[in-house]
Amino acid sequence: MGKFVVKTVASGIKFSLKATNGQVIADSEVYASEASCLKGIESVKKNAPIANLEDQTVEEVKAATCPKFELYTDKKGEYRFRLKARNGEIIATSEGYVAKASCENGIESVRKNAPDAEIVKEEA
């Protein structure tokens, strides 16, 4: 089972979603409070399994409604995804992947791991 690791950083508090193998599959923005960070986690748990997929790497992008995963390429040419909640806010982002298939696997991993992931606090 995956887990959300909540940790304090210099500018606030954030979470990382880790797969069963311990790999980080998604990160959050930095929140001002632990309460807002926990709300972000609940949003990922609720939205990830039902999110549409919008592949922005193809020639004809089919716009998807939120909640959605946006699959895109960054400035370095790596594949990434971001999960947007119903209101369009970005609630989780991925690392860069060299292969598109790896990025798609990351999305599936978030879908699978997020709903039942436990929440743990990492001590600074």
Tag the structure with descriptive keywords.
globular; 2 helices; 23% helix; PH-domain like; 4-stranded mixed beta sheet; alpha/beta
Write down the CATH topology.
Answer: PH-domain like
Q: How many β-strand runs?
A: 8
Query: How are the strands of the biggest sheet laid out side by side?
Result: 3-2-1-8
| Order of H and E elements | EEEHEEEEHE
The gross shape turns out to be globular
| Count of alpha/pi helices | 2
Terminal-residue CA separation: 23 Å
Give the % helix: 10-25%
Question: Mind telling me which CATH architecture this is?
Answer: Roll
Average pLDDT taken over every residue: 96
* Count of distinct structural domains: 1
Strand content: 25-35%
Radius of gyration in whole Å, from Cα?
A: 14 Å
Structural class: alpha/beta
- CATH class assignment: Mainly Beta
Largest sheet: 4 strands, mixed
Q: List segments where confidence is low: pLDDT < 50 over at least 5 consecutive residues.
A: none
- Based on the structure, what is the oligomeric state of the protein chains? single chain
